[in-house]
Design brief:
alpha/beta; 890 residues; seven-stranded mixed β-sheet; binds iron/sulfur cluster; 30 helices; binds molybdenum atom; binds ligand MGD
C-alpha cells in the first residue's frame, strides 16, 4: 500500500507543505499539501521536482576519518578526543561551530546548547549571518526584538506591495504566485519592484525602480521626509508608541532632502521617485517585502531601518495588510533565530549581554558556565581560523568554501585549520574536501524535526524514507559528542520531540509576555502530539495550543525597555569598494529559479538543471559591446581577489555598469565559476552580514581555440580542459567544454577521457583535422555510452536528439551515421533550454509555437502548450519570449 506523509519543503523560507507518497515499489512522488496555510496546495518548480533529488548518488553514508570509513564509535571518540585536547590546551575560544538555516530547530538547539552552555564559548555562528542577520539587527534596533510582524495573508489584504531587493518570482515563488493571484482578484493592488535590474518579479510590477545599487536608504530616507512633509505622519502612533523620530528625520533631510536629490543619488527619473512617494503616501495598507538586495550590503541594517522608519511614521504596522516583511531565505532561517544560533544571541530570543537572560538560561540548562560576550560572526570566525586562533571547527549543513565571501581565502583558512569536522549528507563538496572527519547526516525525507517559515509558522519535517548507510540526525551527533565531553545529563534526549519540548519550555521560562518568542503552549506536548503537530504560528503562549491569529504589535507595545518602537537615524553610506578604471563594473550576485545554493540537491534533477545548464554573467548589451563580448561567448570576470570563467548572456534589462552572476556554481559543477572567490569579505558593522551585492570587477572575453560538449552515462573526472560545466540530463551527465590550447591528438584525448578502465570498447569517430572538428562515441552493448563533439567555434550541433539517443536504448545504424555527421537522422530540432520545468517545455518550442500560432499572451501559450499553467514560475519568461517574438515580427 502506498503511504502518504505530510512534510515541509526543504528549500526556501516560504515553508510549503508537501505531501510525499511512497508506493509499494519504493517510488516517491510529491505534491503540494492543500491543508498547509503557506501554499494551500501549490508548489514551485523546485518543490515539484523534489522526488528527482532523493537518490543515493553522491551520498555520504559512513563516518570518515581522513577519508577512510569508520564506525560511529571510532569517529565520535576520535572527534571528542581532538576537541578535548584543543579545549584543554587552548580554551573554549579555540573551538567553533559553523551551522546552518537548513538544520531543524532541534538540531540547531542542540548545537547552540553544547557550544554556549557547555563548551562555554559563543563561537557558534551560522550561514544565516550571510542571509538574514541584517534583518535581525534592524528588527532589534526598531522593535527591541527580532520580530517579523506580518503573515502571508497580509499580502492578500494589502493595497500596495513593495518588493525591495527581492526577486520573489524566482526565490519565493509560491508567495509571488499568491501576489499574482491577489492582483488578479483585486486589480487595485499595486506592486512596486525596487531592483537595479529587470527581474522576473517585474512581470507584475506597476512600477519598477531600477535603482543605482546600494542607494535604497536614500530612497527611503527621502520617503520619510516626503511622508512627513505631506502630513502623512500618524501623529498619535508616533507620539504614543515610538521614539527617536526627530533624529531620524534630521538625518533623512541631510541625505535626501529633496526629490531631485534622491533621484540623482538613486539614478532614477524624478517622476518615478515622485510616483512611488505618492503611491506610498496615499495607500494605508502597504506591505514592504525585503530580501537580499537590502540585507547583503555593508550597510544593510541601515537600509532596512530606513524602510521600517517609513512604516513607523505612518503607524503602518501591527494591523492587517501592512508592515515591513522580511522574506526569509532558508527553510529554517527563523528557527535558527529562535534557538539563538547566531554568535551574538543566547537562546529563545534572549540576549547574551543581558545578565537576567544569562541567569534564566544558565539555570534552565543547569549549565556550568555561559559566555558573557558575543562570539565570532561568520567572516570573523573564518578570519580567526586563518589567524590560528580557532583551531577546531565543526561545520554542519552548509558549504562555506562556496558561499562565504572571499571564498579563496576562506578555503585557505580551512586548509590550515588543525581540525575540521563536516556533517553533510553529500560526500564530495568544496567544503568536505577540507574535512579531517566527515559525519554522514540524514537529510530531508529521512529526518524528523521542525522548521519555521517567514511568517513564524512552525511546521514538521517528517521522515518517509529509510535512512541509508550509517546516516544519523544532526542533533544526535551533537548529543554523542556532548556525552563524550562529559555532559551526559544535559543531553539525555531520546528523540527530536524531547528537544522540541525543552526548547518550548525555555522560551516560556520567566517570560510572562516580556519576550515575543514564546512556545509555552507546546512545552508539554506528547510524542504523539509532536508527530501530529499541525503548522502553527508563534507565539503559542501557555494555555493555548494554537497561536494563529496573534497579531504582534497590535497594541502598539514593542519589546524595547520603554516599550516604544525606535526610529533609527540613517546617514550617508558607500559600499566598501568602488569601481575604478581597472575594475569598472559592479558585480551583483544572487539566485536563479531552478537551482538551490551550491546545487548539492537541485543539481541532481535533470528537469531543474535543464533551465540553465551553465554558469553565466548577465551583461547589458552596451557594456558587452564595449568589451567586445557577444551573447554566448565565454568571459572572464575578474575582481581584486580572483577570476572566474562563465558564459556571457546579454540582457537589455540588466543595469548598465552592472553584471549579475549566480551564486550556485562551484568546483563540483564547473572548472572555475565559484563567484564568491571574487566577492569581498566586507561586512556590515552592526550585523556582520557581507556585501555580496557589490564587488568591482572587469569582464573580458576568454578566447578559446576550441569548443565542445560531452554527454556520458558516467560522471567523469574533469581535469583535462580549460573550461567545463557539468549538468544533469535524464540518465546522463552533460559537459560543456572549451579550451585555449588545441591538443596534438584529439583521438587520444577523447579516448583517455571516455574509455578509462574500459578494456574493450566499441568506438566510432570522425575527425576533420583541417577544420578542427572531431566527433566520437563510445557504444556499449549496442547502447550509446558517451559522445564527444568538438569544433572551432561555439556553434556546435544541437543536443536534444543526442540525449534522446541515450534514452532510446539500442542504437540504430542510421543514428551511428548521424552521430558522425553531427546531424539528427530524423531532422528533429532541439526543444532548447527548459523554460517550463513542470511540463518540460523548451525555449525553441515556445518561440516556434508563439510565432506560428500568433500567440500574444502567456494564457494563450498555456492553452496550447500547457507551459506556465502549473506552478506559474515560468510565466515571466514566457511573457518575455512573447515580447521578443513580437518584437522580431515588427
Ligand atoms: N531558486 C532559489 N530560490 C531561493 C534560493 C535559491 O538558492 N534558489 N535561496 C533562498 C535563500 S537562502 C534566500 S536568502 C533567498 C534570497 O532571495 P532574494 O533576496 O529575492 O534573492 P537574490 O537573488 O539574492 O537577490 C534579490 C535581488 O536583489 C537585487 N539587488 C542587488 N543590489 C540591490 C540594491 O542595491 N538594491 C535593491 N533594491 N536590490 C538589489 C538583485 O538584483 C536581485 O534581483 O532566496 C531563497 N530562495
Ligand atoms: N555571492 C553570494 N554568496 C552568497 C549569497 C549571495 O546572494 N551571493 N547568499 C548567501 C546566503 S543568503 C546563503 S543562505 C548561503 C547559502 O550557502 P550554503 O549554506 O553554503 O549552501 P547550501 O548549498 O544550501 O549548503 C547546504 C549544505 O548542507 C548539506 N545538507 C543538506 N541537508 C542536510 C542535513 O540535513 N544535514 C546536514 N548536516 N547537511 C545537509 C548540503 O548537501 C550542502 O552541502 O550563501 C550565501 N552566499
Ligand atoms: S516556494 Fe519555496 S518552500 Fe515552496 S515549494 Fe518552492 S522552494 Fe519549496
Ligand atoms: Mo539565504
Amino acid at each position: 500500500m502506498a503511504v502518504e506523509v505530510q512534510t515541509t519543503c526543504p528549500y526556501c523560507g516560504v515553508g510549503c507543505g508537501v505531501l510525499a507518497t511512497i508506493d509499494e515499489a519504493g517510488n516517491v512522488s510529491v505534491k503540494g499539501d492543500p491543508a498547509h496555510p503557506a501554499n494551500l496546495g501549490r508548489l514551485c518548480s523546485k518543490g515539484a521536482a523534489l522526488a528527482d533529488t532523493i537518490g543515493m548518488e553522491g551520498r555520504l553514508l559512513y563516518p570518515e576519518i581522513a577519508g577512510t570509513a569508520h564506525g560511529w564509535d571510532n569517529a565520535l571518540d576520535y572527534t571528542a578526543q581532538r576537541f578535548r585536547e584543543i579545549l584543554d590546551t587552548h580554551g573554549p575560544e579555540a573551538i567553533a561551530f559553523y551551522v546552518s538555516g537548513q538544520l531543524t530547530t532541534e538540531d540547531y538547539y542542540a548545537a547552540n546548547k553544547l557550544m554556549k552552555g557547555f563548551i562555554g564559548s559563543a563561537n557558534i555562528d551560522t550561514n544565516s549571518r550571510l542571509c538574514m542577520s541584517s534583518a535581525v539587527a534592524a528588527h532589534k534596533r526598531a522593535f527591541g526584538s527580532d520580530t517579523v510582524p506580518c503573515s502571508y495573508t497580509d499580502l492578500e489584504r494589502a493595497k500596495l506591495i513593495v518588493l525591495a531587493g527581492s526577486n520573489a518570482a524566482w526565490c519565493h515563488p509560491v508567495l509571488f504566485q499568491r501576489i499574482v493571484r491577489a492582483k488578479k482578484d483585486n486589480p487595485d493592488l499595486m506592486v512596486v519592484v525596487i531592483d537595479p535590474r529587470v527581474t522576473p518579479s517585474c512581470d507584475i510590477a506597476d512600477l519598477h525602480l531600477a535603482i543605482r545599487p546600494g542607494t535604497d536608504h536614500v530612497l527611503f530616507n527621502g520617503l520619510l521626509v516626503h511622508l512627513d512633509e505631506s502630513d502623512e505622519r500618524n501623529a498619535l502612533f508616533v507620539a504614543n508608541f515610538t521614539e527617536g523620530l526627530d533624529k531620524a528625520l534630521a538625518a533623512a533631510r541631510e541625505t535626501a532632502g529633496s526629490v531631485a536629490k534622491v533621484a540623482e543619488a538613486c539614478d532614477l527619473p524624478t517622476e518615478q521617485v515622485e510616483a512611488f512617494y505618492r503611491l506610498f503616501a496615499r495607500t494605508e495598507r502597504v506591505v514592504s517585502v525585503f530580501s537580499q538586495g537590502m540585507n547583503q550590503w555593508s550597510f544593510g541594517t541601515d537600509k532596512i531601518n530606513s524602510l521600517i522608519n517609513c512604516h513607523l511614521l505612518t503607524g503602518r504596522i501591527g494591523r492587517p495588510g501592512m508592515g515591513p516583511f522580511s522574506f526569509t531565505g532558508q527553510p529554517n532561517a527563523m528557527g535558527g533565530r529562535e534557538v539563538g544560533g547566531l554568535a551574538n544571541q543566547l537562546a529563545a530570543h534572549m540576549e547574551l549581554d543581558d545578565p537576567e537572560h544569562r541567569r534564566i538560561v544558565q539555570a534552565f540548562w543547569q549549565a556550568p558556565t555561559l559566555p558573557e560576550k558575543p562570539g565570532l560572526k561568520a567572516v570573523e570566525l573564518f578570519e580567526a581560523i586563518e589567524a590560528g586562533k580557532v583551531k577546531a571547527v565543526w561545520i554542519m549543513a552548509t558549504n562555506p568554501a562556496v558561499s562565504l565571501p572571499d571564498a579563496g581565502r576562506m578555503r585557505r583558512a580551512l586548509e590550515s585549520c588543525e581540525f575540521v569536522v563536516v556533517s553533510d549528507c553529500v560526500r564530495d563538496t568544496d567544503t568536505t574536501r577540507y574535512a579531517h572527519v566527515r559525519f554522514p547526516a540524514q537529510t530531508w525525507g529521512e529526518r524528523e524535526g521542525t522548521v519555521t517559515n517567514s511568517e513564524r509558522r512552525i511546521s514538521r519535517q517528517r521522515a518517509f524514507l529509510p535512512t541509508p548507510g550509517q546516516a544519523r540526525p544532526d542533533w544526535w551527533m551533537v548529543q554523542q559528542i556532548a556525552r563524550r565531553l562529559g555532559f551526559e545529563d544535559a543531553f539525555a534526549w531520546r528523540n527530536a520531540a524531547d528537544i522540541f519540548r525543552e526548547h518550548a519550555a525555555l522560551s516560556a521560562a520567566e517570560n510572562d509576555g516580556s519576550r515575543d518568542f514564546d512556545l509555552g503552549g507546546l512545552r508539554a506536548i506528547t510524542d504523539a502530539e509532536y508527530d501530529a503537530l499541525r503548522p502553527v504560528q508563534w507565539p503559542v503562549r501557555e494555555g493555548r495550543s494554537n497561536g494563529d491569529g496573534t497579531r504582534l504589535f497590535e497594541d502598539g507595545r514593542f519589546f524595547t525597555p520603554g516599550g516604544r518602537a525606535r526610529f533609527v537615524a540613517v546617514g550617508a553610506h558607500a559600499p566598501a569598494e568602488t569601481p575604478d578604471a581597472e575594475y569598472p563594473l559592479v558585480l551583483n550576485t544572487g539566485r536563479i529559479r531552478d537551482q538551490w545554493h551550491t546545487m548539492t540537491r537541485t543539481g541532481k534533477s535533470a528537469r531543474l538543471s535543464g533551465h540553465i545548464i551553465e554558469p553565466f554573467a548577465e551583461l547589458h548589451p552596451d557594456d558587452a559591446a564595449a568589451a567586445a563580448i557577444a551573447d554566448g561567448d565565454l568571459v572572464e570576470v575578474v575582481s581584486r581577489r580572483g577570476a572566474i570563467v562563465v558564459r556571457a548572456r546579454l540582457h537589455e534589462g540588466q543595469r548598465r555598469g552592472s553584471v549579475f552572476v549566480p551564486m550556485h556554481w562551484n568546483d563540483q559543477f564547473a572548472a572555475c565559476a565559484a563567484v564568491d572567490t571574487l566577492t569581498a569579505a566586507a561586512t556590515d558593522p552592526v550585523s556582520g552580514q557581507p556585501e555580496f551585492k557589490h564587488t568591482p570587477v572587469r569582464v573580458a572575453p576568454w578566447p578559446a581555440s576550441w569548443y565542445g560538449f560531452l554527454i556520458s552515462r558516467r560522471r567523469l573526472p574533469m581535469v583535462t580542459t580549460g573550461y567545463w560545466a557539468l549538468s544533469r540530463g535524464k540518465g546522463v551527465w552533460r559537459y560543456e567544454l572549451a579550451g585555449r590550447e588545441l591538443p596534438d591528438d584529439w583521438a587520444r584525448c577523447a579516448r583517455e577521457l571516455l574509455c578509462q578502465h574500459a578494456e574493450q570498447v566499441e568506438w566510432i569517430e570522425y575527425h576533420d583535422k583541417g577544420q578542427h572538428r572531431y566527433r566520437a562515441a563510445r557504444i556499449e552493448n549496442g547502447r550509446l555510452e558517451s559522445v564527444i563533439f568538438i569544433g572551432p567555434d561555439p556553434k556546435l550541433p544541437e543536443r536534444d536528439w543526442l540525449l534522446k539517443l541515450f534514452a532510446d536504448g539500442q542504437l540504430a545504424e542510421r543514428d551511428r551515421m548521424a552521430i558522425l555527421t553531427g546531424k539528427p537522422a530524423t531532422g528533429q530540432h532541439d526543444v532548447g533550454p527548459i523554460v517550463c520545468a513542470c511540463f518540460g517545455v523548451g525555449r525553441n518550442v515556445l518561440v516556434n509555437t508563439i510565432r506560428e500560432q500568433h500567440l500574444t499572451t502567456p494564457e494563450a501559450v498555456g492553452e496550447v502548450l500547457r507551459a506556465g499553467t502549473n506552478c506559474g514560475s515560468c510565466v515571466p519568461e514566457i511573457r518575455e519570449i512573447i515580447a521578443e517574438v513580437l518584437g522580431d515580427a515588427e
